[in-house]
Design brief:
- The protein is an alpha+beta fold and about 100 residues long.
- About 45% of the residues lie in helices and about 10% in strands.
- The protein contains 5 helices and 2 strands.
- Strands 1-2 form a two-stranded antiparallel ribbon.
- The N and C termini lie far apart (about 35 Å).
- The model has no long low-confidence stretch (mean pLDDT about 85).
Length: about 100
């Protein structure tokens, strides 16, 4: 994890696999983003394992951000319409079970 953080600090992002005490492995993605917590990037992201945001329709999952290359508020602004349009396609609906 330390190496992944150091790599992200020099290259803007990195990832690594980690395993807690139950030995279930997780992929951790590290993205350098110095925006304030009230920026569009952070305020529109649904936090993983958080049920508090489930009722909000405008929240984006971290997977949405990663899949569309969103790394900051500017890239979110540029790609948000594409993200919305994709969720209306038959491909997305068949994958997500809608």
């Amino acid at each position: 994890m330390k190496q992944a953080i150091e790599l992200a600090l020099s290259h803007e992002e990195s990832s690594c696999r980690v395993a807690p005490s139950d030995l279930e492995a997780y992929e951790v993605k590290i993205i350098v983003n110095n925006e304030s917590l009230d920026s569009p990037f952070w305020s529109r992201m649904k936090l993983p394992y958080s049920e508090l945001d489930d009722c909000s329709k405008d929240k984006k999952s971290p997977h949405d951000y990663l899949d569309f290359g969103v790394r900051d508020s500017e890239s979110l602004r540029r790609k948000e319409a594409i993200m919305v349009a994709y969720k209306e396609t038959e491909v997305y609906k068949s994958i997500s079970g809608l």
